Amino acid sequence: MRSGVLISGLILVLLMFPPFVAQGWATDGLSIGRMRVMIWPEYDDPSVLVVYDGRFSDDSKFPTTTDFFIPKGAIINDICSLSPDGQHFCQLYEVSEGERHDTAHLSLPFSNFYLSFHHAPIDVEAAERRIEYVIKANHPIGSMEVDIQQPLRSTNFAISPSGGETYSEKDFDHFTYTLEDIAKGEDRVFKIGYIKETKEPSVDVKFASMTGRRVWGSPYETQRNVRTIIYVMFGTGVFMVLAAMLWIATGMKKKGVA
């Protein structure tokens, strides 16, 4: 009886550590044909909205599981796979923390993928703002288009490396770069600087009512606080399971159960 409880407890602990299970997921042999990376500072939140959108080269390898590198501490909004007729199928995922970056583990029924997340709260108390974003490829990429959007009400907007093409859409200025033949594990770094005197993100500025007092919230901060609460609950649960297992094992030893 107690042995069964002990095994059940062990299974419960394994389920509470999904990253350990996910480490065995395969990623070899996949390559991305075309990928778009959107880097939009202060779009809907005082952080950076990032979107990875693209398609793997070989449709015959799907459904499958794979990984994407994301910045440390990034808060994922959506991970989806797109059917051939354009329907979004949101996917369950797991995130394991790394020393320099985190890794999102996911299943993909189709070769098209869509991943969006918020990264790095921006110090909106300072008018001069600096962002460094590193794109780390976990698959070879044939062609990657990087789209960087300038926040509304910002000036002196500059990007390193320079030389991107520019266009305007719905009141926003965009800067695009096309990179070819990205190797697996390769880093591409973009440094962004600008001056912005206001704290409000772009879309709130654009669509908010101009009357009445406005309280600016932060979805990024809210999600981060929720994650902290989940970690505390998770740690408490693990402690209780281990304490129960120790109590059962001690009882069995006293009774001389093999």
Walkthrough of the structure:
The chain is 24% helix and 42% strand. The chain contains four helices and 14 strands. It has helices at residues 2-15, 18-22, 202-207, 219-254; strands spanning 32-41, 48-56, 64-71, 75-82, 88-90, 93-96, 101-108, 112-119, 128-136, 141-149, 154-160, 165-169, 172-182, 187-196. The strands form three sheets. An eight-stranded mixed sheet has the order 5-4-8-2-1-10-13-12. The protein has a three-stranded antiparallel sheet with strand order 3-7-6. A three-stranded antiparallel sheet has the order 9-14-11, with no helix packed on it. α1 (2-15) packs antiparallel against α4. Mean pLDDT is 81; it is low at 9-26 and 205-219.
List the helices and strands in order: HHEEEEEEEEEEEEEEHH
**How many DSSP E strands?**
14
Structural class by secondary-structure content? alpha+beta
Outline, from the CA principal axes? globular
Q: Rg, please?
A: 23 Å
Strand content: 35-45%
- Order of strands across the biggest sheet? 5-4-8-2-1-10-13-12
Assembly type of the chains comes to single chain
Mean of residue pLDDT values? 81
How can the largest sheet be summarized? 8 strands, mixed
| SS summary, helix count | 4
Helix content: 10-25%
* Intertermini distance: 13 Å
Poorly predicted runs:
9-26, 205-219
What are the SSEs and their pairings?
Layout: H1 2-15, H2 18-22, E1 32-41, E2 48-56, E3 64-71, E4 75-82, E5 88-90, E6 93-96, E7 101-108, E8 112-119, E9 128-136, E10 141-149, E11 154-160, E12 165-169, E13 172-182, E14 187-196, H3 202-207, H4 219-254
Parallel strand pairs: 1-10
Antiparallel strand pairs: 1-2, 2-8, 3-7, 4-5, 4-8, 6-7, 9-14, 10-13, 11-14, 12-13
